[in-house]
Amino acid sequence: MKNLKQSGWMTVLTKKSREGREVSFYLSGSGNPGMIDTLILGVFHGDEQEAAILASAFLDQFDGSVFPLKRVGLVPVVNPDGLAKNQRVNANGVDLNRNFPTRDWAELNPDTLYYSGPQAASEAETQLICQILETYPPQKIITLHTPYQVINFDGPARMLAEAMALANGYPVVADIGYATPGSFGTYAGKERNIPTITLELVEGEAFDDIALKQNLEALNNAIGFDCSHAD
Ligand SMILES: [Zn+2]
Asked: How does DSSP classify residue 187?
C-alpha cells in the first residue's frame, strides 16, 4: 500500500471491531468537506475476497487529481474480523448486510450466516456506516460484494448503474431476486433515496487482472457520474 497521504487520502473516522481490528473511513482531499460525492464501501461479507482486492487496489491507485471537485469517501473493509476468518458474518456472528435499522428489520435467522443481530444496528461496523451517512451525506454509494456478476441498484440509480456497466459489462438489475430486510441497500437506497449500487463481482479465477481493471474503471465511472440530473 502506498503512503495514504501521498495518495491524497486522510483518515477521518475509525472504530474498533469486536476483535480489535480497525474499521477505517478515508476521505480524498478535495471537494466540499461536509459532503461526499461518492461513498465506496468494501467487504461487508468477509468471505468475499474479490471485494477486498478491488477495494485495496482502489485505495492504492485512486488519483484525486483526476476528479478535482469530487470528494470520495472509502471504507475499504467494513468487516475486518470476517475477512480475517474468511467468513461472511462478523465476530459476533452477525450478517452486517442484515443489521441496518430499516423499517423492515427484524431479528431473523439466528445461528445462520444471515443472522440479522440481536437489535437493529447492534454492531460497531453498522454504527460506523450510519454515522458516516449522517455526518457526510453522500450523493451516491457503491458497495462491493460477490459473486453474482451484476450491478444491482436501490433508489434512483439506474443511470448510474448503466454508467458503471459501460466499464465492466455486467447486467444492471433492479432486484437481486430475494428479500433482504435490514440490508444496506434498503437503508440507504430505498428509505433515504440515495442512489445506491450493490456491485456484485465474479469470484475466483474469473476475477483476473482484466476484471480488476474493468471494475476499477467502473468505480471511476461512478465517481465521474453526476447524479443530480439522473432518473
Ligand atoms: Zn456480500
From this structure: I
Contact yes or no for 70/109 (Cβ under 8 A): no
The overall pTM is greater than 0.90: yes
Q: Is 200 a catalytic residue?
A: yes
C-alpha cell belonging to residue 174: 433492479
Q: How far is the CA of 88 from the centre of ligand 1 (A)?
A: 8
In angstroms, rounded to a whole number, what is the distance separating the alpha carbons of residues 203 and 153?
A: 20
Distance 68 CA to ligand 1 centre (A): 31
For residue 72 the three cell numbers come to 470520495
Nearest to 101 by CA among 114, 86, 116, 90: 116
Which is the catalytic residue, given 48, 162, 200, 205? 200
Assign 81 to helix, strand or coil: helix
The grid coordinates listed for 168 are: 465492466
Expressed in angstroms and rounded, the spacing between residue 70 Cα and the centre of ligand 1 is 27
Indicate the pairing of strand 36-42 with strand 138-145: parallel
Calculate how far, in angstroms, residue 29's C-alpha sits from the geometric centre of ligand 1.
Answer: 29
The string of pLDDT tens digits covering residues 87-133 is 999 999 999 999 999 999 999 999 999 999 999 999 999 999 999 99
CA distance 216 to 89: 26
